[in-house]
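Reviewers of the previous submission asked for a worked example of the structure-prediction workflow described in the proposal, so we include one complete record here. The input consisted solely of the amino acid sequence. No template or homolog information was supplied to the procedure at any stage.
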Amino acid sequence: MPESPELGINGLTIYESLKNKAKEYKDLTALEYYGHKISYSSLIDHIDKCAVSMYLHGLRRGMHVAVILPNIPQAVFIFYACSKLGAVCDLIHPLSSVRELESFVASTDPQIVFVYDELPAGITFLSGNVKKAVLVSPSEYLPRMAKLAYKVKSGVKTPSFIRFETFPEFMKKSSAPVSFKNEKATPEDPCAMLYTGGTTGKAKGVLLSSVNFNSNAEDAVESCECLERGDRFLAVLPIFHGFGLGVGIHTVLMFGGTSVLLPIFKVKKFISLISKYKPAVIAGVPAIFGAIVSGDVKDMDMSFVKLVISGGDRLPPDIQDDMNALLERHGSKAVVRQGYGLTECLSGVSLMPPGCREHNCIGRPYRHTEFKVVDPETGEELPNGTNGEILISGSSVMIGFFNEEEETKNALVTDEDGKIWLRTGDLGRIGENGLLYFECRIKRMIITNGYNVYPSVIEDIIRSCHGVADCFVAGVADELRGEIVRAYIVFEKQAQKDGSFDDALKAVKNELSLSVSRFAMPRSYVIVDEIPRTKVGKADIEALSDMAKGD
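From that input alone, the workflow returned the following structure tokens.
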């Protein structure tokens, strides 16, 4: 097993960390984008030029830049260029609604907005409402023939009344000689703002520092135990997601790896890209692994895959087992290692140890992270083996929520020793082996007749039944019992008989009656075509709650 590389990134900004790595790995490929390779030294050159252009457009320490882009090279340049100038990079989902985009941009008053050129209908509000807007195309760094094909296929036309500068035009200004007169940024300064998923309330801006990014990268490399310079990582997770930015970009660049940028996830294309790029590392949310195991992988060789990480949501046991079986069948010695984290601590802060196959295990805390489990009501620390709210302390924990003082106070609590703990809102327990086990979101726990019901337990049983494609279990308000359990089920088409799924549903009910307590049995079942999900692949709790209310 190779030793984890010494990162040497403590006490540096993320830009300074990358610049040091570029000196060490200069000729290695840092980014690969549909065959276009960008070396570490070339990456720093692009970042420095981008910083010059930003500076000439008035960007200074503490100001905000809005980035409304998918996983393309320009987004990476902008992210690190902001750090060089001490600015805050606000990363926003390109598929956000127009109202969300307006709200996000208005809240920070960014000096510059970089926007995806395929969103003309959603960006008209930017003309006249922001200081500077730059239109960015995913075709700019494509190889020549691919670029021509993109222009023919996309047919993108920006409305004539929008007069945005393009990214190449913006970068032309970087040739001007500049003497930076800018107060130097510190590693403790905010360098990025990511938005929470907003599944249980309004989305909040999470302010993160270089300390958060660098510490998380150092600990992730150490916990993985197998990463080496030159390893390829398929960066399908979006940069506006903590997992995608913190792991898929920054961590990879800190150990000399190659981040293969994928702007759009399509399972058929993704499977073919695994064969094409032969990544050593595959990381994704459970929905991605569910798509892979149900996809057509045929006789594909996967012997080159040495690390598979699942994060962003709880990994259902059936998908975990099926993915492990798929890896073994196709020659990989890896098993899926589930991690755990939140946007409020950037990315993962724990990871299953190598070879571990336990269900619902989210691993061992990173070196610079502590966990404790407390009673959600009293805050009293609970003994190992007892379910309670998971609290996290360590160098990955956020600075706070942007312009949300009360929300920050509720999320970050200080103990008697002055240590800051992040309240996760998640239920779990610490096992006698020191590993952490995830149960569910506290808000998802159903209390019926005074009994606690964990939806994830019921979901696992339903998913194991023949003909079930997906499911979600929710609590529905009930005057007599407080809440009752309702199951939403997606059946596979082949489970249908005589125009209905009656037989398949009967089999589900029979299995549940044998496996769960009577008080935990669903009182109603709803057959749906799909489980709605958020933009990053998690079950959309808010939308499902609305479905429960409206049923």
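The chain has a mean pLDDT of 85. We consider this example representative of the routine output the project will generate in years two and three.
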